[in-house]
What we know:
This protein is α+β, with helices and mostly antiparallel strands. It contains 19 helices and ten strands.
Amino acid sequence: MKKQPLGLFLLIILALSATMAATTPYLISHTVIGLEFKGGYEILYTAESLQPGKPVDQNVLLNTAKILATRANSLGVSEPQVSIEGNNEIKVELAGVSNNSQVKSIMEDQNGLPVKLTEKYSETVGGVLGKSDLKATFWSGVIALGIILGFMMIFYRGVGLVASFTVATYLWLLLLFFNVFHGVLSLAAVVTFVLGMGIAVDANIIAYERIREELRRGESITDALKRGEHNSFHIIMHANITTVIAGLVLFFAGIGPIKGFAFTLILSIIVSIASNVFLSRILLKLLVQSDLVKRLSFFGIRIRPTPESLKHFSFVKHRYKFFAISAGIAALGVFMLFTTELNYDIDFKAGTALDITLDKPITQDIATTIMEDAGVPPATVAIGGQNSNTIAVRFDNILNSTDINTVISAFKENYTKNVSYEENTYDPAVAQDLATKALYVILVAVAAVVTFVTIRFSWRFSITSAISVLNSAFFVLAMFAIFKLEIDVTFIAAILTVIGFATYNTIVIFDRIRENLRLKAVNNTEELHAVINQSIWQMMTRSVNTLITVVIAALCVYFFAAEPLQNFSLAILFGLICGTYSSICIGTPLYFMLKKRSLKVIV
């Protein structure tokens, strides 16, 4: 056994483990927590010049933000966050504030302000609800991590242990850089941590599958490691670039509630490449050089042929059956979209939303009666939570502070003393602006991804990947329409995640098709058919394993995380399943149909 590589391997493991153990408590305690978790008040203002018709100067906007920060400090708020949004908006986040009437009167006092401020929306978050959300979401991440790492170790054996360490390093690095860049840990950011684990593992899966493929061909472990990592690197990079593109579009669109999601998504991809690609390579290379790895079982591999029944199944041959399935779902989705109204949250249709948490169960009828008797009738009432103690109330009109206090007081007087709540208010202008931005973001994201695929691959790959991606995104929208699920602003983040993943999965398969086409000259339809089907089956284990890990994360978020994230995780779940289906059963057969037209001989 070679001692030097093994010693260096152990040194890296011990040094990183000690560093993570020593610094993680500090990083967690110094992470900026979003209002959803610690309670408080958030207001978005539109600034108008005091001189009619004159645009707001950026310096004047900055001075206004400083004045608002000073006013927030006078309220005794710890670390108030005042930020400029776009060209004429200012967002104020005040943690721990409960007297909203006092806050509004002080913050909106026009005396001494160089601009006129108009409230566009406000949000109140109850501290008790926030703590329970944080705890639930944290444990959903722990459960997801345990299941994913267990799956990797069972399926990939020794290299699965290496993957477990690099994923742990990934989470630590993500937390570290989150602190360095002063990221705010919102609900959307937390769910990116959880889902990011599944996506990060994919880099290991792609590399391990290529290494196992080389081993099955009879290559030595050293050569298989070298060739497998080399061949997988460009696939990983191409796939991650497409996800970064979607994240950048979302971030620069400036949609405040999900900007943290985009920031965390981009950061997670960069960190994943560092830990699950480069660090994993270094560790595996040192293990192999130490002569510690001598058996193929270290890679969880048994040399066995693919069952004949699978080898002969052709996704291209059965393409019209798959097209019919997609067309049927699409037709049902279109019918629902034209015949029924989507279940929009107030983010898109304006009004006030109250999410009330009680310390005991309640029924829909009782909750509705309490609010109607208080003189504030709701538009919709839904009961949720594990103990049926959470009330999601929507009002078509915008409630003022008095109305909200009346509702909360009514529950305290007529049902229970322990009541916490979260309030979101949007006016019609904000709702319309959000809806417009949402459509713009999705179209720009798809266009950007298509442009990248065209430049890096070909127009045929570009067209088929676009159709595959749009099919996945529309499938999610169709499911929400069919099952009347609520659509809020985080739905945009979910759709873009689906777009990124669907493109990611499609590019992984297309990359293999392109590689195989370079290795073998194709002169007729039959040969093209064989190459494409072979490429799909070569990537099948990777596609299934990656889907399993990400679905595990999404299911953990749905069942164990904060209730506001349930619809978000459902959108992700629908999209991931359809994204895998579309890339294999829709995208590749469509590419076959386009590519065969370019062949000189068609049989």
